[in-house]
Structures are given as structure tokens and as C-alpha cells.
Design brief:
Length: 411
Amino acid sequence: MQLLIRGGIAVDTDPVSVTAADVLVDGGRIAAVGPGLAAGPDAEVIDARGMLVLPGFVDTHRHTWQAGIRATGPDISFAGYVDRVIGELAPRYQPDDVHAGTLAGALECLDAGITTLVDWSHIQHTPDHTAAAVEALRHSGIRAVFGYCSRAPDAAVLTEYLGHDLVTVAIAPYGPELVDESVALGEWRLARELDLPVTVHMGGHGAESAARGLDFLVRNGLLNPRTSYVHGNHYTDDALRRIAGSGGAVSVSPLVEVELGLGAPVTGRALAAGAPTGLGADTVVSGPGDMFSLMRAAYALERARPNTGFTTRDALRIATADGARTAGLGDLVGTLGVGRQADLVLLRTDLLGVAPAHDPVGAVVLSADTRAVDTVLVAGRVLKRGGHLLHHDVAKVLDSLTESAARVLAA
């Protein structure tokens, strides 16, 4: 089926460009971008006049299951987060709680224009917990990389979830900075056995730890492509260049990293090193869950550094095209390129605080917020239209989330 997005301002991201253009979607993919496009007689037409049409945002690192414990640690330290969330609350989660949090978190992303999500899911107490998380992602309609993190990883469990179009799988190891090297080797062996990408917390626990962890990867021949390094704030410039040279990518959570005391976000340094660099919300326990907040935080923190040269175009690119590369999906999404999956967002510009959008890129990065997200598509399927999610009873989802949170927090 064809769908024609007519009369909008197309904002592409690799390279960043702005033009008045229609976008034609056919079979879930972008078929053409240009002025005055024609479509078949049965095509659905979306009137995009007064809107910006751009690739959907990509969140490269989020613990989606934590939606129900939002803002329970607004001023928390990293040690406090580990004690409260991982030590106290996570063990209380039953599969229904994982489902409620993951579904609400994924819908929160879609509602805010995030069409691709790397869900770093370290709540895999049992195979039923894993099933609940994956089912919630699939039910939401989002494109997701399910990052499987377990202290007892099971290849048989993961094999059940391979081969899905929208929800793919990655190994999310604890890694050599947090567990014994023998355990870390087993995590990477599982990734190799199943031919899966890796997304790992490394480089965020001090300079010595960062150097030791990277040395572990080098010694064991594990400094490979298809690896995303999360919170790499303590890597040296040479280490970042080494990661980039290996084909690795870097995921930055600018707000949470600063709040939890993980060090200065590495955004600009990673880009300068040549590494694909994406943004992530990380946890709504202590930070916001929308990409507008993350872009602004990354932009402000980089502009505070001397002679950085970081621009709003850089911020938009890491939220889209570079984020897609970081998630391992750069050949599928992240731009308006013909043949890419039609994961698209239409943003209103007729709002107080956004209008008039003289510079569309500046408007997206510095002015827009979630109110502006009018329409969202994933693989050509319209999931949000006219400011409303279409395929879910949001009130029911929120009721389930509230009930789950009450159980978890009262236990």
C-alpha cells in the first residue's frame, strides 16, 4: 500500500538538509522524496502542510522496564541508583511488571517521536521475564533492539526471539568492568555463538576501570564491530579512536551521566574520534525520556566546552542517522533515503514556543518538545496521528503501569 506525505518540509539527516518536499511510502519503505510527487489512486494521503517531516528519533540506550518507577530518584547518585533500583526494586519485579513497564516505556517513546529503541533490559530473572519484555516491545509497534542482560544467559531462551522484523536481539553483557573476566568471556562467546551485536556499559567507572576493560577486549580479540559502548566518559581520545577504528560506536546519555556522577559526556570527543555516536535516555528514574531533552542537553554541554564547534545539526544527526548506526541499524533507518524503512515523524510548527520555525533544524533541537509530535510511522505503519496514539488504549496501559508500580514500591 502507498502512503503520500504531502506538502511538508523534509528534514534529512545524512547530511542534514532542508527542502520543501513530499515523501512517498510504498511497502513500508521510502519510495521517493521530492516536490509534487504522484501516488496511486488508492494511496493514503497525509497533509503535512506546516509540518517538518524527518526520520524518527533513535534512542540508543534505555532501561525501558523502569517506566513505572519514574522520578523515584531525581537527585540520586550512581551508587544510590544501584542500591535502590538494582538492589531493592528490580528483585521485586514479576513478569507482569516487566510487561507493564516495557509497554508503557515503548509507547512513551513512540508518543515522543522515538521510532527506534535499544532496550537494555537487565531484568531477566526468568525466561518468563524475558518473554514479557519481548512481547511488550512487539505489541507496542516500535522498532527495537532487545538488549538481553542476564547473570545466567541462556542461548536457548534467546533463540526463540530471533528473526522478528521489528524487534531484533543484541547481547547486553555486564562486561569486564563489573564482573569477573571469565564471566565476561562467556557473555561475548554467547554473542559470537548467536552472531549477535553487543551493547555494553564500559568506560563510565573511572579512568583505571576504562583502561582495564578496553585492555581485556584487546587481549581477548573482542574489540570488534557491531559493539556499542555506553557511558564511555572516561575513555581517552586515543581509546575512542581505537574503538572507532574497530568499527565500534558510542552511546551517550547526557543528562543521566551528569546527574549520576559518571563524568563529562563524551559526545563531542567520540564524534571527533570518528565513532558513530547516539543518544540515550538511560533511565527515567532520574531523567527525562524524550529526545528533545537529550538533544538540548548534549548541545548545551558541548557548547560549554571551548572551541567545540558543535552545532544543532550535529545534535539532530546523533539523534537520528548516527543513532541508527550506533544501534546497528544504519542501513535501515535514520535518514529519508530512498529504500530506507519509513520510520518517520511529523512535527508541528504552529505552536507557541515553536512558531515561527525560521530554521527548521534549530526549531527541532532548541524549540520543539513532545507537544509538536503530530504523526509517527514505523515501517510505513501510522502509529500516531493528529497527536494521538492509534492502536493502544493508553488509559488502560497507564492503569496497568500504576498498579504495577504500587506493588513494586510497596513491597
